[in-house]
Design goal:
Blueprint: H1 6-33, H2 41-67, E1 70-72, E2 76-78, E3 81-88, E4 91-98, H3 99-115
Antiparallel strand pairs: 1-3, 2-3, 3-4
Helix pairs in contact: 1-2, 1-3
Length: 122
Amino acid sequence: MLYGDETDRVLVDKYIMYPMLLTIFNRDLKVIAQSPFKLRQPYITLVENVMNAISFELRDVKKEMVQRRIKVSDGRPVDDMTEYQIFIRGYQEVMRFPNVHLRNKAELLMKHFLFGTLVERK
């Protein structure tokens, strides 16, 4: 990120990743609801609680982005990457993330929300 500081980078990263996590957990919730578990309600409750936590954090991220005058366009797929246009206090920047990186980052964040800490990959 050329024009933003570390706080801006963290906000942009969360703004990009949290909606992805909500999509992933929502799909998983549908699979769990249709699964043959004898007791599926605890799993559904766990996923719903995680989704609520992510939603609350995303709300706070959006508020802070408005205060810091940061906007992020929706991701646009380009080959094996996803491209975002970032607007920081009047400056425009294009950020490209490899899809593999986004997937790995989503996995780490899922572990963070499910287990409470960032879990190192092994």
